[in-house]
Amino acid sequence: MAEADIALIGLAVMGQNLILNMNDHGFVVCAYNRTVEKVDSFLANEAKGTKVIGAKSLEDMVAKLKKPRRVMLLVKAGAAVDAFVDKLMPLLEAGDIIIDGGNSQYQDTQRRCKTTLEKGVMFCGCGVSGGEDGARYGPSLMPGGNPDAWPHLKPIFQGIAAKSNDEPCCDWVGEDGSGHFVKMVHNGIEYGDMQLICEAYQLMHEGMGMSCDEIGDVFEEWNKGELDSFLIEISRDIMRFKDTDGKPLVEKIRDAAGQKGTGKWTAISALDYGTPVTLIGESVFARCLSSLKDERVRASSELQGPGDVKYTGDKKEFIENIRQALYASKIVSYAQGFMLLREAAKEFGWKLNYGGIALMWRGGCIIRSVFLGNIKAAFEKNPELQILLLDQFFKDAIHRCQVSWRKVVAQAVMMGIPTPCFSTALAFYDGYRSARVPANLIQAQRDYFGAHTYELLSEPGKHIHTNWTGHGGNVSSSTYSA
Question: Which residues are designated catalytic?
Answer without folding.
Answer: 183, 190
